[in-house]
Predict the 3D structure of the following.
Amino acid sequence: KGIGVGLQYLIPNNNFQDLELFFRSEFFGPWYAWIFPHREYVSVGCGADPKNLPTKKLVANFQSWLKEKKIDVSGSPLEAAAINIDYRGHRFGNIFLAGDAAGLASGLTGEGIYQALVSGEEVACTILDPNFSAPKIQEVLRDQKKHQRALWLLIRAGRFRPIVFRAGLWFLKNKRFREKIIKDFG
């Protein structure tokens, strides 16, 4: 039931040097857009939960945002991917799920590479030792719950969401709070 969607263009240029995140509530609700530079291309994308921001609306908002930012995506296809954030278990008899297949991605950030690596290792340990308790998966699930609570707050913030974003940025700029936030949110 919990599926996010990620949209992106892979643009073959190196005009972008810095990783950037854009929290623009009017375009992306409680989610964000990104610019992720790579050696040969740049990924420009956004994500959302279709239950809160329908995919058609997200696409239209993304196109408006790209136009506002004067980012030329002509010649690059729009890519989309589902992000499974609905953990229902990782072991079903002799069938094991890891990462996105297990629903371990973050509903807040869409991130799932770390969760995939950790859960893959834990599944391998469980296959080797059926009594293995998979403690790192439990840690990932605790972090996922924290992310879900933060996302719930952002969704409920509605028109006050920009204030919440600004407060979050202030906290991240403050060293003491940043260390606590990073520790608490994994």
Summary: The helical segments are 25-28, 55-68, 113-128, 135-157, 161-173, 175-185. DSSP finds six helices and seven strands in the chain. Residues 55 and 150 are 22 Å apart (CA to CA). The longest strand covers residues 3-11.
